[in-house]
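Predict the assembly for these two chains.
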Amino acid sequence: SAVISQKPSRDICQRGTSLTIQCQVDSQVTMMFWYRQQPGQSLTLIATANQGSEATYESGFVIDKFPISRPNLTFSTLTVSNMSPEDSSIYLCSVTRRRVDYGYTFGSGTRLTVV
Amino acid sequence: ELKVEQNPLFLSMQEGKNYTIYCNYSTTSDRLYWYRQDPGKSLESLFVLLSNGAVKQEGRLMASLDTKARLSTLHITAAVHDLSATYFCAVEGGSSYKYIFGTGTRLKVLA
């Protein structure tokens, strides 16, 4: 399966600031996704990162708050903008390689605390 | 809209006992996944179930899929403390390949 490097692993940020999270994969992947996991909760899909075009956002998530880039088949970033304490969560990227296998691989996650 | 529900949400069981976690989903899907998450960690893939009637086993865990009933089960046999974790099922939502996760089952195995 693909190997994902997700950075940073954790951060403590001031409210009103922004944080960009990076997801680097060791091989080309078909699909890249970003998830949020609030404390004690399940994972919620934020968006699908599309290569070279705007991400596809799920209901409740907007581009102004969570801008996403995917310039190539191995790299994506998620920015959490104008942060508030409610944004404190774990953010995970996930990838799948449809033509290789049906597995999904998850990054190690970014634990974000907004104070 | 695809919805995925798990039960129970919390499970406390004695070592050596058997139990089953259930995962129900609301729309047609032929692919279901089970993951394990330890506290503070990312997700570890356990099983990929790709067709109706699929059954997979690894150690004390066995997963099955009934696509007609839109139901998957994760059966735990003779539980041990090391199985304590949160278990998630996830269903692939149609042609977009995106995952929708279940609510999760927090399992605690008591010595």
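The longest strand of chain B covers residues 85-92. The two ends of chain B are 41 Å apart (CA to CA).
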